[in-house]
Amino acid sequence: MMRILIIEDEGKIAAFLKRGLKEEGYAVDVAADGEQGYFLASTQDCDVIILDLMLPGLDGLNLCRKLRAEGNEARILVLTARDKVRDKVQGLNAGADDYLTKPFAFEELLARVRALLRKREAGSPTKLQVADLTMDLLTHKVLRAGREIELTAREFALLEYLIRNVGTVVTRTMIAEHVWDVNFDTFTNVIDVYMSYLRNKIDRAFPDKLIRTVRGRGYVIKG
Ligand code: CA
Questions:
Q1: Does the N-terminal or the C-terminal CB of the chain have fewer CB atoms within 10 Å?
Q2: How do residues 111-142 score in pLDDT, each as one tens digit?
Q3: pLDDT beyond 80 at 79
Q4: Average pLDDT, the chain
């Protein structure tokens, strides 16, 4: 599960962000000032830090510099009420990856967070594995027990999403959003059809089935 740390002293904004991000399936922690934020950022392994610049105690810019100086590699999205170019440049110079000016729509923040997570993943291993199934994200070669399996681009994306969430049930809503990038609505049949194509290819010929349907909830690939 991806972990996000929100460092924001305005309680309403922090609570609103926390609720929205949790609904998207992220693990979320909140710090209400710079010192607490620094403590959590340096003791937990966060994927993304949402950092307000104007904070009591240690301010956002100094916090950002301090984390980078210590080699912290979390993606940092700076929130600023100030829309002056100078503040944005300072934030980026301090080691932030992106910035967003208040007020902002939650959808926009979510899009930025997802983009940062994709960037972070780009620096991670290029092969995924579950049991005797491996997928190479560069060559798109999929092997099960050493046998090559041909997948379409959509089936590949679906399998990649399942494996990135190995051991966790993914709902059809999550699949619709992450693999198709659409809202759920009337999409359930399409997902079930693609899932059956995928299962035919990776599970049918093997006694040990990797993908399981969880009734009323979604699908899971076992680790
Ligand atoms: Ca503030």
A1: N
A2: 889 888 887 666 666 789 999 999 998 788 99
A3: yes
A4: 88
- The pLDDT of 92-99, averaged and rounded, is 86
With beta carbons less than 8 A apart as the criterion, state whether 199 and 162 touch.
Answer: no
Taking the centre of ligand 1 as the mean of its atom positions, its distance from the CA of residue 55, in whole angstroms, is: 5
**Cα(7) to centroid(ligand 1), Å:** 9
Question: Is pLDDT above 90 for 190?
Answer: no
Task: Say how many Å lie between the CA of residue 11 and the centre of ligand 1.
Answer: 9
What is the percentage of the chain residues whose pLDDT exceeds 70? 92
CA of 103 to the centre of ligand 1 (A): 12
Taking the C-alpha atoms of residue 82 and residue 37, their distance in angstroms, rounded to an integer, is 21
